[in-house]
Amino acid sequence: GDTAHLFWLGQLNVARAIATRKVVSRGSVPKALALLPAIKPAFDLYPQVLQELGYDEMIPREEEKRDLPRSRGLAKLRTVFQRQKAVEVDYEALNHHFIPLVQDLPEEFFRVAFRAQDLPGEEAALKGEMLWRMRLIRTFEEALARAYAQGELPTEMLHLSIGQEATAVGVCFALRTDDYMTTTHRGHGHMLAKGADVNGMMAELFAKESGLCKGKGGSMHVTEAAVGALGANGIVGAPYLIAAGAALSAKQRGSDQVAVAIAGDGATNQGMFHEALNLAAVFELPTIIVIENNFYGEFTHLSKHAGLQRLADRAVAYGIPGVTVDGNDAWAVYTATSEAIKRARRGEGPTLLECLTYRWHGHMEGEDADYRDAAEIESWKQRDPIQQLEHELLTSDILTQDQAAEITLQAEEAVAEALAFARASAEPPANALTKDIFAPERASLYQPQPSRLATREISYSKALYEALAEEMGRDERIFLLGEDVSTGGYFAVTAGMADGFGPHRVLDTPISEYAIVGAAVGAAMTGLRPVAEILFADFLTTCMDPIVNQAAKLRYMSGGQYAIPLVVRTPGGGGIGGAAQHSQSWEAWLTGVPGLIIMAPGTPYDAKGLSLIHI
Fold first, then answer.
1. How far is CA 216 from CA 204, 211, 431, 523, in A?
2. CA distance linking residue 604 with residue 581, whole number of Å
3. Positive or negative CA dihedral for 485, 491, 492, 497?
4. How many angstroms separate the CA atoms of 425 and 199, rounded?
5. CB 155, CB 211: distance < 8 Å
6. Are residues 412 and 139 in contact, defined by beta-carbon separation less than 8 angstroms?
């Protein structure tokens, strides 16, 4: 009775009352909320009815006005403001961080032009190309080791993959130019195998402006979008999430592209790995999950950091194929990867591929690697993947001794040229520090807008629904993903949207916040405009890496190669009786992260308007 009384007085927050179970819905919550404006005129009749029935005491009286002397200070302040003349606002000064970015650029500006990597089709010639590329990778990294030892590289963190070249080449040679590849901090070999520019690679590791990422990525994050690389990542589980998102993007766009993620055995112990595999399996995404198993997660042997030793067996939990191959045999890796890619292009989903290999150097340069036995290292050197392939080509008369020597010489010359290029290149200018944080946007977004009188009253949920529906109707690249988005979630924001746009664009995901936002990052990098919903703001803590380390930073670390048009939408704040893990407001915490634009609208008008601008 008290709740009904407050309702007819117009003093009940209906949405909050439903959320806190003061009002129990027997039907569609969105439809009920949509009816409120039509019911509102009846609120004026309710006091009249109470008066006619003799219940005057139930009619709230207008509060007595406050004593005038106590508000004299506020009244004076109000007078001062009323005397102020209209001031011309310098919007350029207010938006000085954005002004260089606000341009009306064509859509083609954000499209990556892939650079073809022409590989031979015939087996013998392809194996010869494999040998050349493996020699290039080995020579490149040996040169890096010397430069590091001489103090030339501006980093204390250099992770080499010497000994693992066959896995890099075998996987990447199976890919098409426009297929996607993600990798980790030990990604020099993967990048060169995918066709990255050698000079730009070397300049990047020397932190020069001519580097692939303008000197902003360095050893752990070097990448080149033109060869389909979506970044080398210092967060070892992140490549799996981003590849899943790129594969989702390909599927959404009707493309037959595939996405490959390469990371080490240690990465398989992160939650990101498992969330990515589950998402890929559930959605049957065209992705290949490669475990570059060198038997050491940083300094710890596989036997001490995993409960099983054949990591491909982890595929069983997700109902997908798991394959183990000799990662020091480039052709075996190439063959297994090719089969997985064919399966993915047929729409049969992901494959987990474990490549057994070994890094001759420690986790990073400068360490003594005394956690490994010298005999173990020597035994793997006897299985040098380059020597194995060269011996095969020589004994089968595909290659002569002179040709093998010429391949070695060509690799040495290419690396020497790259070193000279890097050493002669200029350092980035000081003003580069604040460039490439945000992608260019329309100038109209940062101009003053005329104020409008309110013409209708709607809820926050309705305002957000309208913004999403209008933008999805305007741009087919926009899609929603999150937990229960097809049914509207807890606050019914997206209820009914699947009916209008279909399950193809309103995707219900597993309860996997890492996978939701991580996949959204990969999808945004590859041409789509995802809106990722997180059920409550509190749960941002369970997907902080893809927000803070990926979405916010990948444009900057890549030197502006990627645009990441991504929206993460989540309700925050208390008042619903959800206690301390469902009632937090995180917007202030996130405002200190470069690369993120934080919106916390105070009215339905702002909620719709700000959403329309940034979706």
1. 8, 8, 13, 23
2. 25
3. negative
4. 10
5. no
6. yes
From the CB of residue 338, how many other CB atoms can be counted at a distance below 10 Å? 15
What's this model's pTM, rounded to 2 decimal places? 0.87
Q: Return d(Cα 295, Cα 268) in angstroms, integer.
A: 12
Q: Parallel, antiparallel, or unpaired: how do β-strands 180-184 and 229-233 relate?
A: parallel
Tell me the average confidence (pLDDT) per consecutive run of 10 residues in the chain, 615 residues long. Answer: 84 76 73 77 85 83 47 47 52 55 65 89 97 98 97 95 98 97 97 98 98 97 97 95 98 97 95 97 98 91 87 97 98 98 98 97 88 92 98 96 97 98 96 88 64 78 93 95 92 91 96 98 96 95 96 96 94 85 88 92 88 79
The b-or-e profile of 519-539 (16+ CB within 10 A means b, else e) is bbbbbbbbbbbbbbbbbbbbb
User: How many Å apart are CA 219 and CA 233, to the nearest integer?
Assistant: 10
| Gap between the Cα atoms of 243 and 260, Å rounded | 6
What gap in Å lies between CA 126 and CA 399, rounded to an integer? Answer: 12
**Contact 453/235 with Cβ under 8 angstroms?**
no
pLDDT at 96: 57
Question: Apex CA 528: angle with CA 345 and CA 320, to 5°?
Answer: 35
Burial code (b: 16+ CB inside 10 Å, e: under 16) for 130-147 equals bbbbbbbbbbbbbbbeeb
- Say if CB 163 and CB 325 are below 8 A apart: no
